[in-house]
Specification:
Elements: E1 2-11, E2 15-18, H1 19-23, H2 30-37, E3 41-44, H3 51-66, E4 73-79, H4 90-98, E5 104-108, H5 114-128, E6 133-141, H6 151-154, E7 159-169, E8 175-183, E9 191-193, E10 213-215, H7 217-239, E11 248-251, H8 256-266, H9 277-280, H10 287-295, E12 305-313, E13 317-325
Parallel strand pairs: 4-5, 4-6, 11-12
Antiparallel strand pairs: 1-7, 2-3, 6-7, 8-13, 9-10, 12-13
Helix pairs in contact: 3-4, 7-8
This protein binds acetyl coenzyme *A (ACO).
Acetyl coenzyme *A binds next to helix 2, helix 6, helix 7, helix 8 and strand 12.
């Protein structure tokens, strides 16, 4: 008995921005971006493609695959740091868009771990209320939050959304097997984004250049690899499983070099790993559910397998989830 994913969905903006197009915006090159990050293209939101609109579209796909009506959803969580509004939540906009009238809805701010932590919350909710259906979404339009004059950051990110519908299964095998998460607020200043300047002079934050992503790339690289490795090995210790038991790995897609280093340390064959960062860039909370979508149909229905999700992002926040699927 446990929580399973009943359906997944995704939505990407129609506009593709290539590395070559970026060459006309900042002092960079296709060659530099490819060799340093593996990214070739990213999607950029346009009219009608705000975070909640991408999220709602991904949600509709997931509900359709799950054959669940929007009104059956009891909990709706959106992992995001790039909603067009600070309040109400992106999740409430999505609720309204899709007609999930029975749900309670909230946003979850855990940067690139937003979907993963949402999945954890959803799993625990379903286990305490086994009749309920839950909708977890990761959605971002970070194109609205990067400084397009900063070549260190604007080349990395892309927009998109992915969603998963969760429900209870009586099958003792298929379920979320375990989770292992950790945050380290002491390292917040290696990757952050300001809010709008305070209207209370006593609460003003100095050197606030606006709501842009600011990061120390090299430091993040080191911490990302280490934290994801620790999340995975910690989870294996908790569950008694090992890397050899894993059939599919769906990591947060930050960039190829981070992922290559992680795969090398885990000694997991590349063909077991879902990689899409070359097409979408770093879509933060959306990257893992976009990976689910890209991986759909790779196995015959009913094929039993173990999948692992792993992520790292601002906070710092990191974590991993093991699921038995099929
Ligand atoms: N185009 C051309 N040159 C560039 C660019 C660019 N877009 N960006 C930086 N450079 C230059 C720098 O100015 C520097 O030039 P200099 O030697 O003359 O000073 C040179 O390239 C090397 O810069 P570094 O920052 O040292 O480059 P590095 O090899 O570390 O690669 C990168 C940078 C790709 C950002 C790497 O540090 C990295 O992958 N970090 C992880 C960051 C990340 O993924 N953040 C996403 C959010 S967190 C997450 O999702 C896990």
């Amino acid at each position: 008995m446990g929580t399973i994913i009943l359906g997944t969905g995704s939505c990407l903006p129609s506009r593709v921005m290539s590395n070559v197009e970026l060459e006309s915006i900042v002092d960079t090159s296709d060659e530099w971006i490819r060799t340093r990050t593996g990214i070739e293209n990213r999607r950029i939101g346009g009219t009608g493609e705000k975070t909640y609109q991408l999220a709602a579209s991904a949600a509709r796909n997931a509900l359709e695959m799950a054959q669940v009506d929007a009104e059956e959803i009891k909990l709706l969580v959106v992992g995001t740091v790039s909603s067009h509004m600070l309040m109400p939540s992106c999740a409430c906009y999505v609720q309204n868009e899709i007609g999930a009238a029975s749900a309670f809805a909230y946003d979850l701010n855990a940067a690139c771990c937003g979907f993963l932590y949402g999945l954890d919350a959803g799993d625990r909710y379903v286990r305490t209320d086994t009749q309920s259906k839950v909708l977890i979404i990761g959605a971002e339009t970070l194109s609205s939050r990067v400084n397009w004059q900063d070549r260190n950051t604007c080349i990395l990110f892309g927009d998109g959304a992915g969603a998963a519908v969760l429900g209870h299964s009586d099958n003792s095998e298929r379920k979320i097997i375990g989770t292992n998460h950790r945050s380290d607020g002491g390292l917040w200043d290696l990757l952050y984004m300001h809010n709008a300047p305070s209207q209370n002079p006593d609460l003003l934050v100095e050197d606030n250049p606006g709501a842009h992503i600011i990061m120390e790339g090299r430091e993040i690289f080191k911490h990302a690899v280490k934290a994801m490795e620790e999340a995975i090995f910690g989870l294996f210790k908790k569950t008694g499983l090992s890397i050899d038991d894993v059939d599919v790995m769906i990591p947060h897609q930050a960039n190829f070099r981070i992922l290559n280093k992680l795969l090398e340390r885990l000694e997991i064959p590349r063909e077991k790993v879902v990689l899409n960062v070359m097409h979408y860039g770093n879509t933060s909370a959306a990257s893992i559910p976009l990976g689910y979508w890209d991986n759909r149909g790779k196995f015959e229905p009913g094929t039993s397998r173990i999948e692992i999700d792993v992520a790292f992002g601002a906070g710092f926040a990191s974590g991993a989830i093991l699921r038995r699927v099929g």
